[in-house]
Amino acid sequence: MVGCDGIPLNVRESVARDTRANGAVPQPGSGLAQKVEDLKEFYGNGIIIGITSETDKAESGPFVAYFSTNNFRTSWKERFEQTGTLISAKSARKIFGGKEDINHLYNLMAFVKTEYNNCFVAVSNGNQTDAIVSGQVCSSMGLKESTRQYRYKEDAHNTPRINGLVVFRTGWDGPKIEKAEMGIIKKNQTSDSVTHEDYNIEPMVRGKARLITTYSGLNQGPLPSFEGEPRTINISANGINELVDEMEGCMGAPEYRVALAVAKIDKAGRFNTRIKNYRD
């Protein structure tokens, strides 16, 4: 299996183990470490939007994936759950008597059908998902208009907010992407001001996807935010189960994986999903 940067996962994981054992992140110019770009093993949250490349072209279709990773352990365990066409992030911990205390964190992905055979998927790492849905339903707003009131998350790492929106039109020949956008809201590097970066990621083609994450991947403190336009990655999966496996390769070090949600729109315009929780 190959990761999103083209590095075989067994190679990445071997180097990652050696790196953690030595207590340092490899620096540029250090042989294999240079090839894997300092391992880029901790990305935080990530959004991936693309089109699959099934052998049967009629089965190819758009998909949206969202993942969560965490490089520290707590008594709370984040998990993804689906209710209808809404996927949410929740946190749970065991309490007295073996029962679970569960908190709703945020709606991370919503699939909404609108009039005239249209539908859309909104995705984010916070409550801005609900704002994107409202903006699209009420006024056909894009990401920029729907999320302009938000700031980065004012936590220990000033975690950026990442957002995605895909609008489809469904017909006899399957869903067609009419609009695809990704965005990031992050702290300015030199002040507390907010930087909004929004990208139109069209046109989209079979076998390609775009990826945006909260952090750059370099596992150091403070965690550096994602920089530049969403990365282009190749998609070779044949079917949603293989797609889940391929998306895992984008999540960085296996021990940091928390949860993954993958949604593929089939040719009938249905929302087909897979959710994988790694810490249950």
Explain this structure.
By secondary structure, this protein is α+β, with helices and mostly antiparallel strands. It folds into two domains: 1-39, no CATH class; 44-277, Inosine monophosphate cyclohydrolase-like (Glutamine Phosphoribosylpyrophosphate, subunit 1, domain 1, 4-Layer Sandwich), CATH 3.60.20.20. The protein is 16% helix and 38% strand. The protein has five helices and 13 strands. The strands form two sheets. Strands 3-4-5-6-7-8-9 form a seven-stranded antiparallel beta sheet, covered by helices on one side. Strands 11-10-1-2-12-13 form a six-stranded antiparallel beta sheet, with helices on one face. Strand 7 (161-169) and strand 8 form a beta hairpin. The longest helix is centred in the first third of the chain and has 14 residues, at 9-22.
The helix tally amounts to 5
Rg of Cα set: 19 Å
Structural domains: how many: 2
Tell how many strands the DSSP assignment holds: 13
The 3D shape can be described as: globular
Note the main sheet: 7 strands, antiparallel
Series of secondary-structure elements, N-terminal to C-terminal: HHEEEEEEHHEEEEEHEE
Beta-strand residue fraction = 35-45%
Named CATH architecture of the largest domain: 4-Layer Sandwich
Helicity level, as a percent range? 10-25%
Structure characteristics:
alpha+beta; 280 residues; 16% helix; 2 domains; 5 helices; Glutamine Phosphoribosylpyrophosphate, subunit 1, domain 1
Describe the SSE topology:
Elements: H1 9-22, H2 32-35, E1 45-51, E2 62-69, E3 77-83, E4 86-94, E5 100-113, E6 118-124, H3 128-139, H4 143-147, E7 161-169, E8 176-187, E9 194-200, E10 208-213, E11 231-234, H5 240-248, E12 257-265, E13 271-277
Antiparallel strand pairs: 1-2, 1-10, 2-12, 3-4, 4-5, 5-6, 6-7, 7-8, 8-9, 10-11, 12-13
